[in-house]
Design goal:
With 299 residues, the chain is of the alpha+beta class. It has five helices and ten strands. The protein has a seven-stranded antiparallel beta sheet, with helices on one face. A three-stranded antiparallel beta sheet has the order 1-2-10.
Length: 299
Amino acid sequence: MTTTWKPSDKKSTNHAPDITISGTTLSSRSRRQKFAMIAGFAILGLLLAVGACSKQSPKPALVGVSSSASVPTALPAIAARANTPTDAATPPLKKKLPRKRPANVVYSDPNSGVSFLYPRKFALTSGEKSQPRLAGMDDVPMNFVQPGGVAIATVTVPNGSYPGTDFASAFFSANVNRSLSEQECEHFAFVDTRNADGEPVDAENTKVGAADMETTSNFSASAIQQAETQYYHSYENGDCYEYVLGLGTEGFATEGGTEHVNRDEVFARLEKILASVKINPVEQEHDAEQVSGLVGGKE
């Protein structure tokens, strides 16, 4: 019987190690599986965290982009609105004040060199049509000692300038005579005859502005009209210039409250025109003819 149980004992001893080895093998596999599961869960958690971060990170980026983009687009819009005339505050319309024209006008004649200032309200005629005339009377003649006078211009005072008076007309005129010498220019064809004895009154030398002039006057009257003229001569640039101041009235003031016009006041206005006269140098006609003759001779 002893020999019979030994093999069984061996078998039992031989199977015991096998059981122990398999248990060890199972425990090591389970540990690996657990580790693998833990690692998997860890990786899965990491991926979820990364995914969550990736989903959340664009939102701030989009907000940042949109906010940064909206600021510059809003500012030009505001600036554009501010620059548009419709949105801008329109200032109140200012009334355009009427531009005042100067009271005096400049007349200048390049042919004679005469220029002067005269009131804008006065009427001016030039050339041949500028021969002055007093109301109800013939043309006022020139007063050169020799013929050859040429009318330059005449300024006429408006008829209604002195209402309620016997004022009829008044004027300032300018003439030139290029055929007179300086000595002849000092004299007049007719002079003042208001002397009580009927003797002519010699011309007087007077200074008007910066020019020295010879002057005389003439007066004529009737029951219904009076006319007074004052003549001035000056010799400049080889020519004799004549200036005439004239005043006409409609008789003596009698009925209806008509008064005599202030003659001094009228002549004072005309003398202002005379004081503004300037003579600019002009080429003499005879000099031009001599030049043209020389040119023709050379040809």
